[in-house]
Amino acid sequence: MLTIPMMAAPTTAQLATEVRLLVGRLARRLRQEAAGGLTASQLSALASVERLGPLQLGDLARVEAVAPPTLTRAVARLEEGGLVRRRSDPGDRRVSLVEVTPSGRRALKDLRSARMAFLVRRLDGLSDEDRLIVGRAARILSDLLADA
């Protein structure tokens, strides 16, 4: 009779390290899969403007947790690419608002589609049993974040 040794459960610290590393690698891989020529900070700023609507540069800098000059450079690159535009704030003409253009929306949609396609391809390569395990793990990770 063949006996399979039981593996010891990882400590909480070991598990936390493994989850942190894997989530980081997955995020990096998804960024690499479809960046569309944008840096991570440009893509993040573009997604924030899309999600939050027209924003003042200072507000966007706070949302992105970056220094205003850094954000100004990122927005300038996005503007050069036709992904965002600046317009005067109707409430205060001295202030400009940044908003996503139709091209910016399309770029985000295309990037998200490419990332989704990558994940679908990888998940399709798993067995039914492993897909169930991944689904369960995703729900557990979601529960971990719900309390954060």
Concise summary:
With 148 residues, this protein is mostly helical.
What does this structure look like?
With 148 residues, the chain is mainly α. It is 66% helix and 11% strand. The chain has helices at residues 12-33, 40-52, 57-64, 68-80, 102-124, 128-146; strands at residues 55-56, 84-89, 92-100. The chain has a three-stranded antiparallel β-sheet with strand order 1-3-2. A hairpin with a 2-residue loop joins β2 and β3. The N and C termini lie far apart (47 Å).
Q: Tally the helices: what do you get?
A: 6
Rounded to the nearest angstrom, the radius of gyration is 21 Å
How many domains is the backbone divided into? 1
Q: Which CATH architecture is right?
A: Orthogonal Bundle
Instruction: Assign the CATH class.
Output: Mainly Alpha
User: Which fold name fills CATH's third level, the topology?
Assistant: Arc Repressor Mutant, subunit A
The assigned structural class equals mainly alpha
Low-confidence stretches: none
Mean pLDDT: 90
Q: Separation of termini?
A: 47 Å
> Can you identify the CATH superfamily?
Winged helix-like DNA-binding domain superfamily/Winged helix DNA-binding domain
Helical content stands at 55-70%
Major pleated sheet:
3 strands, antiparallel
Secondary structure elements and pairings:
Layout: H1 12-33, H2 40-52, E1 55-56, H3 57-64, H4 68-80, E2 84-89, E3 92-100, H5 102-124, H6 128-146
Summary keywords:
single chain, 148 residues, mainly alpha, Arc Repressor Mutant, subunit A, three-stranded antiparallel β-sheet, 6 helices, 66% helix, elongated
